[in-house]
Structure formats: structure tokens, C-alpha cells
From TrEMBL:
Classification via PROSITE patterns: YIPPEE
Pfam families per the UniProt record, alphabetical: Yippee-Mis18
Species in which this protein is naturally found: Halteria grandinella
Keyword set includes Zinc: yes
InterPro entries found in the cross-reference section: Yippee, Yippee/Mis18/Cereblon, Yippee_fam
Residue span(s) of domain Yippee: 13-110
Keywords: Metal-binding, Zinc
Protein name (Swiss-Prot/TrEMBL): Protein yippee-like
Length: 165
């Protein structure tokens, strides 16, 4: 059995598989944002990573005949788009070797923003630590009592706590 080798981009803005978080491509690789797939909006990327490809088939698309293959996430095997092997119409040749991914299947992650958010959350959770733990303790004290009323009251507090992290 082969070992699964994954590529992790160090660029700031990457597109990851919505299902499993695997890096599939980056913002820099976008060639065109005007493509459409079964689920709606899709982008054409110059390079994609961590994908496998299906069997090639000739398809008559709105822009002419193309030889295409499905591409799927190597980790969770979700089909996320397709790649062009051959474009038979000369004006469409620029697509050869490139891949289309439907936005429905990917999530944009900007690491600089993510980092800032984490820092903000971290300082917030330190300020609130004391009130959090007493709140959590009182909820814990209520739960074993097995009263329907107290667990209903505790639920919104629990979800609030959850959101802050
Ligand atoms: Zn995946």
C-alpha cells in the first residue's frame, strides 16, 4: 500500500476541501472565476493538489467538445470538479491541464485572518476565564439533578460557552 503524501501550501489564501479540510489549491492559481458546475459557481485553477482523477471521457460542453476527467479529494474522495485533458476547439486550448473546482465543495481559508481571530479569541477567553469556570460549574451541578427544567435552562448557556471558543 502506498503512503498518502499530501501537499500543504504555505500561501496565505488557500482553498480547502469543505468535507475534510485538505488543501486543494490556492488563490494564486485562479485563472477564471466565470465557470459553472452542477452545483453552481466554479473557478478554473492553473494547479490543484491532493486530488485523484477519474477516467477520461469526451463531453460536449457549452464551449465545444472537451476530453475531461473528474477530480476528487484524495482524502475523502468527494468529487470536487473536473480537469481538461483536451479541448478540441482552438479557442478553448488554454484550459488544457487546468482544473475546475465547484465552490460548493471548497472553503477559502485566509491564514492571516485566522491568526488574528485566534489571537482575539485567546485574549477574550483569558479575561472571561473566571466567569466561565463558575458558570460551567453551576451547569455541571444542575445536570445530575436530572430535573428537566434545569437542563433546559442550562442549554443556552452551554451553547454560548461553546461559541466563545
Ligand atoms: Zn476531502
Amino acid at each position: 500500500m502506498g503512503k498518502l503524501c499530501l501537499f500543504y501550501s504555505e500561501e496565505d489564501t488557500v482553498y480547502v476541501c469543505k468535507c475534510c479540510g485538505t488543501h486543494l489549491t490556492t488563490y494564486k492559481e485562479i485563472v477564471s472565476k466565470t465557470f459553472h458546475g452542477k452545483t453552481g459557481e466554479a473557478y478554473l485553477f492553473d494547479k490543484v493538489y491532493n486530488v485523484g482523477t477519474g477516467i477520461s471521457e469526451d463531453k460536449q460542453l457549452s464551449t465545444g467538445l472537451h476530453r475531461v476527467r473528474d477530480i476528487y479529494c484524495k482524502v475523502c474522495v468527494t468529487v470536487v470538479g473536473w480537469t481538461y485533458d483536451i479541448a478540441f476547439v482552438p479557442s478553448e486550448k488554454y484550459k488544457e491541464g487546468k482544473a475546475v473546482i465547484e465552490l460548493f465543495y471548497i472553503k477559502k481559508v485566509k491564514f492571516s485572518e485566522l491568526h488574528e481571530e485566534m489571537l482575539k479569541k485567546h485574549s477574550l477567553s483569558q479575561e472571561d476565564e473566571a466567569s466561565h469556570s463558575t458558570q460551567a460549574n453551576s451547569i455541571m451541578a444542575h445536570l445530575p439533578a436530572n430535573s428537566a427544567r434545569s437542563s433546559i435552562q442550562a442549554l443556552p448557556q452551554l451553547s454560548m460557552l461553546h461559541h466563545r471558543y
